[in-house]
Design a protein that fits this description.
This protein has a domain of 177 residues: Rossmann fold. Helix content is 39%, strand content 13%. The chain is built from 9 helices and 8 strands. The strands form 2 sheets. A 6-stranded mixed beta sheet has the order 3-5-4-6-7-8, with helices on both faces. The protein has a two-stranded antiparallel sheet with strand order 1-2. β4, α7 and β5 form a beta-alpha-beta unit. α7 packs across α9. The structure holds cobalamin (B12). Cobalamin binds next to β7 and β8.
Length: 289
């Protein structure tokens, strides 16, 4: 059978199966419903300025659209970034990792990760064994007690924590502060720095912790400082340097900024609102980056 004969046979079979007639299809000049159009961006006045703007952020800006919807590329990127955020919140620090960094391992009252996520308060106090270990093994009366916590992204601590704590030790020591051996707290919320500060009688505590991730920011750490420790200290008396990661505020620069913040804090006798000196026009010098 020739190729043409085969084609005719297949056409006949298909026509029989679908019940085709010889009526000519109605062809409309204009389709009734237009499909969505890919709307690429209009040509920018300065392509260079546009690229500079995009380079400032990993966020999806100036991406174009299709109809009222995202481009497939944007949509898939959003799903991938969401997966990174979920992975970050689900991540945990494995046993033994903190000791390898030279940090004293402690844990909070949260018995497991699910309890930690569901009951934030359980992540703000040490469990009994850790309290005793902290009383026995942690140094007393340091200027700044360094603490590392997993918080809402153990991945961030694993990736950026060692570099950040090394840089913090370097800059704080150079600024004249006594900092000792760092402590690590598993299942930690910010508030746990209060209890540690009270136990160790440090003048200030500083906790680095995995931030609640935004889209694609599962590697981001924050530094929270608290001067004059007391249980349940208000956030208004504390300070925060956020977005510490390679794509944001790089650990080395964030540590230098933190040392400057601690100098101001000690000079003012407290952090947070005390640093404003009561001036309503005050603009904190510690912002994202
Ligand atoms: C969640 C969140 C909040 C929540 C906290 C609720 C809760 N119980 O979790 C709410 C909505 C209450 C909040 C409020 C504020 N927040 Co807020 N917050 C965040 C966010 C998105 C995540 C924080 C996080 O992951 N913490 C880690 C986990 C483990 O900590 P946690 O113990 O579970 O929760 C504590 C901290 O989140 C802390 N906290 C939250 N915000 C702030 C801000 C400051 C200055 C301090 C000292 C502490 C603090 O409060 C929680 C309870 O103790 C971050 C952005 C980010 N992705 O990091 C911004 C962020 C930390 N917040 C910020 C700000 C400015 C504020 C406010 C001052 C806003 C305002 N003008 O009112 C207030 C201050 C609150 C206060 N005085 O108590 C800024 C801090 C900027 C800076 N470098 O100082 C950030 C970085 C957002 C940003 N990019 O601008 N916040």
């Amino acid at each position: 059978m020739t190729e043409d004969e085969l084609r005719a046979l297949v056409t006949q079979v298909v026509r029989e199966v679908v019940g085709a007639t010889d009526e000519k299809p109605v062809v409309r000049e204009e389709p009734l419903r237009r499909g969505p159009h890919h709307r690429p961006l209009p040509a920018p006045r300065s392509a260079e300025a546009l690229e500079q703007l995009k380079a400032l952020t990993p966020s999806r800006i100036i991406t174009g659209r299709t109809g009222t919807r995202y481009l497939t590329k944007s949509y898939l990127g959003l799903r991938a970034d969401h997966a990174i955020a979920l992975d970050a919140v689900e991540s945990q620090i494995e046993d033994g990792w903190a000791e390898k960094q030279g940090w004293l391992p402690l844990r909070t009252r949260a018995k497991d990760h699910a309890e930690f996520l569901l009951h934030p308060d359980h992540g703000r106090r040490l469990d009994d064994a850790s309290r005793q270990r902290c009383e026995k093994d942690a140094e007393r009366g340091l200027d700044v007690q360094l603490i590392a916590g997993d918080g809402l992204s153990a991945n961030a601590l694993r990736l950026n924590g060692p570099a950040l704590l090394t840089a913090l030790r370097k800059h704080l020591t150079a600024a004249g502060f006594r900092v000792g051996k760092p402590l690590f707290v598993k299942f930690a919320r910010i508030g746990v720095q209060d209890e540690i500060g009270v136990i160790t009688q440090a003048k200030s505590t500083l906790i680095i912790v995995g931030e609640r991730p935004g889209l694609g920011t599962g590697d981001s750490l924050s530094i929270y400082t608290a001067h004059g420790p007391k249980l349940g200290q208000d956030n208004a008396e504390k300070d925060c340097i956020s977005n510490v990661r390679d794509l944001g505020f790089v650990p080395e620069r964030a540590a230098a900024r933190c040392a400057a913040l601690m100098k101001d804090t000690f000079a003012a006798g407290g952090g947070g609102v005390k640093l404003t000196g009561g001036d309503p026009a005050f603009r904190p010098h510690v912002i994202n980056h």
